[in-house]
Design a protein that fits this description.
The structure is a homotrimer. Chain A has a single domain, classed as Nuclear Transport Factor 2, Chain: A, CATH 3.10.450.50. Helices cover about 25% and strands about 40% of the residues of chain A. The first copy, chain A, contains three helices and six strands. The first copy, chain A, has a six-stranded mixed β-sheet with strand order 2-1-6-5-4-3, with helices on one face. The termini of chain A are far apart. The N terminus of chain A is likely disordered. Chains A and B meet through helix 1, strand 3, strand 4 and strand 5 of A and helix 1, strand 3, strand 4 and strand 5 of B.
Chain lengths: ~160, ~160, ~160
Amino acid sequence: MTPPASPTAPSFTGITAAPAPVPSQAQVYAEIQQFYAQQMYLLDEGATDKWALTFTPDAWLDLPMAPVALQGQDSVAGAARLRRDELDREDRRQRHVPCAVFVDPVDAGTVRARCQVLVLTTLRGGRPDIAFSMTCEDVLVRAADGAGWLVKDRLVVSDSSG
Amino acid sequence: MTPPASPTAPSFTGITAAPAPVPSQAQVYAEIQQFYAQQMYLLDEGATDKWALTFTPDAWLDLPMAPVALQGQDSVAGAARLRRDELDREDRRQRHVPCAVFVDPVDAGTVRARCQVLVLTTLRGGRPDIAFSMTCEDVLVRAADGAGWLVKDRLVVSDSSG
Amino acid sequence: MTPPASPTAPSFTGITAAPAPVPSQAQVYAEIQQFYAQQMYLLDEGATDKWALTFTPDAWLDLPMAPVALQGQDSVAGAARLRRDELDREDRRQRHVPCAVFVDPVDAGTVRARCQVLVLTTLRGGRPDIAFSMTCEDVLVRAADGAGWLVKDRLVVSDSSG
């Protein structure tokens, strides 16, 4: 599939609806909430390779501090490792807390989703600080095995960017 | 309908249950969680008029800092605009983060709901501060088109009020 | 039933699946999210006895600051009362904000669940502080009346512990 022209305006050309029974809105919403929870736990526990597999192979990730958008599982894993090294040097634990999940279905296998993320860092023996408040603007697609969801396109907007 | 005698003790007289199939608990809970997420996103993005439409025309809003409870969409929009002007002068971005949603069904078209809201403000280029921790004690009613929920009565309690 | 050998590795021996229809994943997930919301509201409102009843009679609670794991409703209530006395002396309001709920079903009446909890304290007239960022690693069991869930085993891990 051709990569989207831009990480914020992906093309859905070629996506066909699954023939399976349509899951209820509640079912999809529960799945997406659990997806965000698990994805953030993987990242914060340093399971970087598993975390990268929550993105599609051709996924775009557009971060507020990065000069260009990243594409692909290796690139997003690389960014996560750089951040982890920085945290390790500072002896900080990081926590991405997903909140305020909103889901807008596109078709049986695709949703647009939004998630507010509070990023906390805690020094050993210290108190948590809120380092960032960010919004993930995502396009999520159902994984090929039907068992979960993957990020196809993520735009991260920081409240600090004004 | 006669307005409720008090914003914290609304009368349900005259509300009749919808004849439609009763949605599952999970369905209603997903709808209410999404309602809170969307309502807070609208407020924080400055879509004040759309945000005001998430209240019924006769809704009560009782805020911790206001001397009296507000009634009606114009009144609540006015309060939101005053707050927004204040934030703009301070060059701050505001974020209402809804958490810990609890829903207690009253009838097919009415729920009592509670939501913990963390209010963060972020200066451009700065770090987020938690300005308030508040609880919304709400009566929500299903919108006439059946597609969503509206606030009929909201009591906001701040943890700072002691 | 024999108490679990360790609070982090409970035995499921003797638990038999309920013969009732299996609730949907969305239904269970909604129930667990509401369970966490209600449990935290009870604790923060000082309804300590009701809060203790959200644990099974033989439940284990392993807290980061406690030298040993607590067992039973009286023990966990005692710990909550000690903390409440401390908060009252400091004129602080406490708020446990549950986020990022993840549920892994074990059988019809048992789930492993994880929940990120931000613990905020607010001085009267002051601003909220994040005192702790913690993760609850729980085994939850369906209550005998089928109406809700109970903590059978809770390990609380603080981000400050490094």
